[in-house]
Amino acid sequence: MVASCSRAWCWIWLRSGTFERACFVPQRSLNGSVLRWPSSESVLEAAGQWAQRQAAAQPELEAVGVFRSYGRGDAGVGSDLDLLLVLRQCELPIWERLRPWDTADLPLATDLLVYSRREWESLPQWNPKLAATLDRDLRWLIAPSPLEAKLNQ
Hints:
globular
C-alpha cells in the first residue's frame, strides 16, 4: 500500500491495483510517520481554541457551535468537524461567507454554516429540517446568553 497525502485526504494504492481515497490526519510518532485519527477531546479542544481566536479577531462573531457527530458525542474515525457560526449581521451571499474563516489549523476537514443572527433566529421557519437537526445535535463552543436562552426555549 502506498499513500500520497495532502492536508487531510490521501490516495491509497491498494494491492488490487486500484486507488482509494481515504481521509487521514498524518501525525509523527517517535518511530516515524504513522496515520492516526485525533481523539474527540483533542478535536473539540482545538475547535474551542479556534472559536476563541476567531471571536477575538472578528467582533461580528457572536456564537460558534459544533454539530452533527461532534455535537452528539459520537464522532469516530472519518468524522469531519461541522461548525455553525452566527454573526451579528451578514449581507454577503451564502457562497461568499466562508472566505473570512480560515480553518486550516483545525485538525480535521471542517464544514461551516455561517448565518446572521436574524437568519439563525428565523431558521425554523425557512429550514425546519435543519433547525430540528441543530436543535438535537448542536453543542455551543461560544454562545452569548441572550442567543442561547432564546434557542433553548
